[in-house]
Amino acid sequence: MPESVKISVIGAGSATFSLGLVKDLCLTENLKGSEVSFMDIDAERLEAVTRMAERYTAEIGSDLRFEQTTDREVSLKDADFVINTAMVQSHYHQRDMREMMGKHGYYYRGVSAGSFYQFELMMGVARDMERICPDAWLIQSGNPVFDGCTLMTRETDIKVCGLCHGHYGYFHICKVLGLDLDRVDFQAPGVNHCIWMTHFLYDGEDAYPLIDQWIEDQGLEYWKTHVAQGTHDIQLSRGAVHQYRMYGLFPIGDSPRSGGWWYHTDIDTKKWWFGEPWGGPDTHLARPLHVEKLEKRMAEIRGAATDSGAKMTEVFGTEKTREQQVPIIDALTNNVEGVFQVNVPNNSALEGVDDDVVVEVPALINKKGIQPIHVGALPKKIMLEQLLPTILGMERGIEAYKTGDKSMLLYNALENHQTRSYKQAFMALEEVLAQPANQELAERFKYPWPEGHEKVYLMD
Questions:
Q1: Closest CA to 142 of 315, 18, 289, 281
Q2: DSSP-assigned beta bridge partners for residue 184
Q3: Which of 253, 173, 257, 170 is CA-nearest to residue 214?
């Protein structure tokens, strides 16, 4: 007999995600009768999301109940699943910090103060869950998935599963090559935002030669003429293919965005590696467009929420999304077994990585739980030049958060390949921490030496 559940959604003001979740629940018969508790600190957005969810459910004729609250503890009470999609700092704050970095000689991704605010939120949710709903699953759907899930699984006893869209990058490869997705078998393990396609089969045969042939026959023309359809349209860019040639496996999804500093020195370089017109998602051209698109969609949603005549099924459609949250909930609750791409503690799934590091791997999921599939080892070159450095960066970030050691933030700034002097990095970090929105962060982090002593290291 199918079981219903209570799902708490933290950061439910993200209307596109929340309504997509509701749609998937409505279209999953096993979960009828379930309750969704929307929680957000923005009461106005919360009201709009709840109203639209109720209208959509009524139009579909589904059996779901909804609760809205600005109190996290209320939302977590009796929850079977908690989905955290919240982001603490706004796009505008991030933009202000990027503009500030420009004044110090950094392009776009300059000095970072780490993930302090997201870590605080994640740990707050996890600690609350330990008290209020200790048996619930946390499905972490907001970044940084890799760092945050590793932190939470080490510091708490809750069950954590991180999710990301990045692995769907192989869809684009299939589309360009003209391959039927239903005939493709795919695997891309690693850590979040650093995953590598170890298996790419078409009708059971190795399909990598099809990629090689495309590169040889069409690659140059594609890079010369292709106009990105979206800011994240980089899966077959020159940069992604270059990384494939470097390592022998294709980087998938968000993975090509990291790669190496040489892809990101300035906007012209980014366009060379990641294409026109934006040079990938991490540029001063792309990010405003991405935010504008989100705001436009939010305005459409708000308009529909206040229009009593608007059909929610027309606004959001009646086909399931590609999101994995609801199918995973159904698998864990009602034993609808499936294989999913998840971020969970390694436990020997990926060779050469510590067991308490959260890895992104395929997992068999059913009522027994989430069972990571052993994927073997990645090539040693990928481990040495990509995966292990990424893991080391995560470890440094967690250690800085736990200790409040400001010199670790400074070290990261000094290691930035756009840094040309100690003073440049030092002054940029000081200005970041001096922002009003970063007051709590500035109070937390201190240098491991007497106050004021840092000035003796600055050249006039």
A1: 18
A2: 202
A3: 173
List the CATH number of the domain containing 132: 3.40.50.720
Nearest CA among 248, 266, 176, 260 for reference residue 219: 176
3-state class (DSSP) for residue 121: helix
- Total number of domains in the chain: 3
Written as six digits, the tokens of 402 are 């736990």
Q: Based on C-alpha coordinates, what's the Rg of the chain?
A: 23
**Token digits of residue 282:** 């991490």
Token readout for 117 is: 């605010």
32: containing domain? 6-162
Q: What's residue 101's pLDDT?
A: 87
The neighbour count for residue 219, using CB atoms within 10 Å, is 16
3-state secondary structure of 230: coil
Position of tokens 């930035």?
A: 416
CA distance 120 to 135: 21
Backbone φ, ψ for residue 123 (5° rounding): -65, -35
Give the pLDDT score at 336: 97
- The three state secondary structure string of 170-198 is HHHHHHHHCCCHHHEEEECCEECCEEEEC
Query: Given 360, 395, 430, which residue is the final one in a domain?
Result: 395
Catalytic residue chosen out of the listed positions 165, 199, 226, 242: 165
Are residues 428 and 354 located together in one domain of the fold?
no
113 domain residue, yes or no = yes
Could you say which residues of the chain have pLDDT below 50?
A: none
In the set 24, 40, 147, 254, the catalytic residue is 254
Cis (ω within 30 of 0) for the bond into 277? Answer: yes
Contact 3, 336 (CB under 8 A): no
* DSSP β-ladder status, 199-202 and 205-206: antiparallel
At 270 the pLDDT is: 96
Q: Are residues 18 and 66 in the same domain?
A: yes
Q: Which residue is listed with tokens 């958060």?
A: 401
342-384 tens-digit pLDDT: 999 999 999 999 999 999 999 999 999 999 999 999 999 999 9
50 and 193, same domain (yes or no)? no
Active site residue 254: yes
Element (H, E) at 294: helix 286-306
Half-sphere exposure in the Cβ direction for 453 (13 Å, CA): 7
Cβ atoms 364, 371 nearer than 8 A: yes
Amino acid at 4: S
Report whether the peptide linkage leading into residue 144 is cis, meaning its omega lies within 30 degrees of zero.
yes
Residue by residue, DSSP assigns 376-444 as B---HHHIIIIIHHHHHHHHHHHHHHHHTBHHHHHHHHHHSTT---HHHHHHHHHHHHTSGGGHHHHHH
